[in-house]
Amino acid sequence: MWLRITVIGVLNFVTAALSIPIFATAIWLVSTHSSDCMRLPLWPIIVASVYIFLVSIAGLLGDCYRVPWLLWVNAVLMFLIIFLLFCLTVYSSVASNKDGARLFLQKGPMSLSW
What is the C-alpha to C-alpha distance for residues 41 and 53, in angstroms, rounded to an integer? Predict the structure, then answer.
């Protein structure tokens, strides 16, 4: 039991620590580039890094102070992150394929050969 709690705490701490440089780099890139074409794609990275940081802190606090509802919130939000990354992967695979979007709309998602 103690080992499981320690592993969860360490993973949440590492995740929170890794989201800080991502956030700082995105803010630096937004402030240094003057064109909207370069700044606009960075805002989702900023939002995602803040979201991951807050979810990790919630998990860390839930783990350290033994707050079960905070751990459940952490688990649900992490599942949401994983699900959205899966959807982004499928979307980018379909969109980058030459005829992927047309085939997807005509025959449905199960007819594509991945």
Answer: 19
